[in-house]
Amino acid sequence: MRISIIMIFLLPFLVLSVPAARAQTIPDDILRQIEQNNSTLAALRKKTDAERLGHKTDIYLPGPQADFNYLNGSPEDIGPRKDMSVRQAFDFPSAYVFRSRISDLMNDQAELEYLSHRADVFFQVRLVLADLVFLNSMSRIISERCENIRKIYELYEMKYDAGEIGIMDLNKARLNLLGIQSELENNNIETAFSLNELARYNGGNRIAFSDTVYAWYPAGQDFESWFEGARGNNPSLQWIGKEIAAGEVRIRLSRAMNLPRLEAGYMSEKTAGEQFRGLAMGFSLPLWENRNKIRYEKASLLASKEMETDYRLQYHEQMKALYEKILSLQASIESFRSALKSADNRGYLLKALSGGEISLTEYLLEYGIYYDSFRKLKEMEREKNRSVAELNRYN
Question: How high is the pLDDT of residue 114?
Answer without folding.
Answer: 96
